[in-house]
Design a protein that fits this description.
Elements (H helix, E strand, L loop, with lengths): L1 H5 L4 E7 L6 E9 L2 E6 L5 E6 L4 E6 L6 E5 L9 E3 L10 E6 L9 H6 L2 H14 L13 E7 L10 H11 L4 E8 L8 E7 L2 E6 L8 E4 L10
């Protein structure tokens, strides 16, 4: 929590070789701001990392250069765990389910308010650490439950013909975007979402709050007729 509130760019993406004895860790990428959830793209060409403090997803190339580019920014929440959808919708790129512990509200957002006030961030973080009541901090933010579906550009369409090559290039120019928002404004059924996992047409949604002793389940058939925003 202290790192989250400080917003420092000292986050690392590590690779652990469990084949070595003893196991060894190496740095894949550095300079990340509170990296949280992570997924490896099916092509294995890049990772996608959630930057919670920045409300964005970062693309990190899976090569020696480890190039970092912003995939999508200004999300309406602080992203937590990421999960690739096992299903690929026709004519679309891969989908990522994003769990959101807190929503960035308008006109006032605690996350945005603290972003430009480092002294206040350090003071609040220190106070929460001293009294060992970190979850109290979440009471300052809305308790609504929020899950995003983000669709990636269709960059890897397999073997291309001359006709499909032009279409594939146009799809590459389309940025990642939010194509579905699952929202419980009251937070009574779904609150402080830490992650969402899709399996056989259902979405299993978890929370990290101490008082939540259940997993919410959503039948994704209700999204079949949803028009992408």
């Amino acid at each position: 929590m202290l790192e989250f509130m400080q917003g420092s760019d000292n986050g690392l993406l590590l690779s652990v070789s469990h084949y070595a004895t003893p196991a060894r860790a190496s740095i894949v990428a550095d300079g990340l701001v509170f990296p949280n959830g992570i997924v490896l793209h099916p092509s294995e060409e890049f990772f996608i990392v959630a930057s919670s403090s920045r409300a964005s997803l970062i693309k990190v190339s899976n090569d020696k250069e480890s190039r970092k580019t912003e995939l999508i920014s200004n999300l309406p929440c602080t992203p937590d765990n990421l999960e690739l959808s096992p299903e690929r919708r026709i004519g679309k790129g891969e989908d990522i389910w994003v769990g959101c512990p807190s929503r960035r509200t308008q006109p006032f957002s605690m996350v945005d308010f603290l972003a430009s006030r480092p002294t206040l961030r350090r003071l609040m973080a220190s106070l929460m650490f001293q009294i060992d009541k970190v979850q109290w901090l979440y009471k300052l933010a809305p308790s609504a439950g929020l899950v995003l579906r983000i669709t990636l550009p269709q960059e890897h369409a397999g073997k291309e013909t001359e006709q499909t090559s032009e279409l594939a290039q146009r799809r590459k120019d389309v940025p990642a975007r939010v194509t579905a928002t699952l929202y419980d404004p009251s937070g009574k059924r779904v609150t402080r979402v830490s992650g969402a996992y899709e399996h056989k047409g259902r979405l299993f949604i978890g929370s990290f709050m101490n008082h939540v002793h259940y997993i919410s389940v959503l039948n994704l058939s209700c999204l079949e007729n949803l028009t992408d925003s």
